Amino acid sequence: MGERHKPPSRVHDMFFAEAFRTPEAVAALLRGFLPPEVCSQLDLSRIQILDESFVEEDLRQHFADLLAAVPTIDGDTFVYILFEHKSWPDRWTGFQVLRYMVRIWHRHLSDHPQARSLPVVIPIVLYHGKSGWKRSPTFAELVESVPGCGGFVPNLHFVLADLPRTAVVGMPMEPATLASLRAMRDIFSKEIAMTLKEVKEFLAACPPDPRLDEAWRRVLNYALQAAPELTEEQARELAGEPLKNGGAAMPSLAWKWYRSGETDGYGKGREAGREEGRQEGRQEGRQEGRQEGRQEGRQEGLREGALREFQRVARIKFGRETACALVSLVEEIEDVSWLHALIDAVESAPSPAAATRTVRKALRSKISPK
Questions:
Q1: Which residues contact 257 (CB under 8 A, 6 or more apart)?
Q2: Which of 193, 275, 281, 354 is the most exposed place for a label (fewest CB within 10 A)?
Q3: For residue range 29-86, what is the model confidence (pLDDT) as tens digits?
Q4: Between the CA of residue 125 and those of 24, 82, 94, 157, 158, what are the distances in Å?
Q5: Considering only CA atoms, which of 129, 162, 80, 85 is closest in space to residue 316?
């Protein structure tokens, strides 16, 4: 595909959070990856997604991708479901999971000081790397083996969902969740274009639903940012038409094409330039119009792409409310390079307050440089 812009470092995290952060999606994942005898004890109709406010601010950027609370069928207690996704076989996953679990229990005791026991936490790791996961899904394998000391090592294991080695197509789940899971499973595969084509055809064959159009846009944008085997020609073909007749128009070609100007804004600007040139009736005017429209359209496409990326980074890291507040501060900025600098600043900020201070300081500096 030639030289491509490196995708954002958290692109997989963002896609996972956007695609699966609903009770319906969580229920589908639990049915697909938990043992039936465990699922049968959970009331999947009353799943609660726990937002970022559950996690201490200084840990949010390191915390797991998704946390849910599920009541048991008898209603007496609830179980935490901890989702973590990996795009490479991280040796220390078991330790990370243990750390998350301890934090969950710590917060539980803070919220329920009269508690006499701790809730069950079920960790599920969704892995979608190129190579198979060869490590044991346990914590004990990370600890040195000393004769007679095994009883002092926590007996923890996590549910490992090795997506590329899993037949997800037949899983009982609603179409948008299945489409997202297939995209994540094959994102590094040489067959990603075929998978996307099948996903598009599958969604198009479903009863009309605006959520499916949104699911397709999300899947396509994810692939455009993260699929190393997807060529420009394949991406153009996939993005060329809406999912359904009368459906919403497809988005621009995402992050890696924002910088090349090949966006919807670019195309609209180019057409505006052509029309302006035709109206003037002179070759010179046409060329001028095309060039002006191309530049204006390209810049607007770049700006819109940067604003969407800013919003996604802020929402995934700090939650919807903080993201909306931050976007309201930067939505009038025209300088694309400045927006990208603010994306990096928000991503590295340790808390919502720090992110807001950083953005406000940058705005003041930009308006009245010292």
A1: 224, 263
A2: 281
A3: 999 999 999 999 999 999 999 865 454 554 455 455 688 999 999 887 899 999 988 8
A4: 18, 8, 10, 10, 7
A5: 85
Report which DSSP code applies to 336.
Answer: H
Q: Tell me, what's the pLDDT at 52?
A: 56
User: Quick one: tokens of 98?
Assistant: 């243990």
Tell me 137's DSSP state: S
Question: What does each C-alpha distance from 228 to 2, 5, 192 come to in angstroms?
Answer: 11, 11, 9
How many other β-carbons are positioned within 10 Å of the β-carbon of residue 229? 15
Q: Can you point out the beta strands (E) in the chain? A: 48-49, 66-71, 78-86, 121-127, 159-162
Give the whole-angstrom CA distance, residue 107 versus residue 109. Answer: 5
**Over the stretch 294-327, which tens digit does the pLDDT of each residue have?**
445 555 667 777 888 888 888 777 776 677 778 8
At 48, phi and psi to the nearest 5?
-115, 125
Q: How far is CA 321 from the centre of its chain?
A: 17
Residues in the chain: 370
Q: What three-state secondary structure class fits 20?
A: helix
Q: Which residues pair with 261 in a beta bridge?
A: none
Q: pTM for the complete prediction?
A: 0.64
Q: What is the amino acid identity at position 18?
A: E
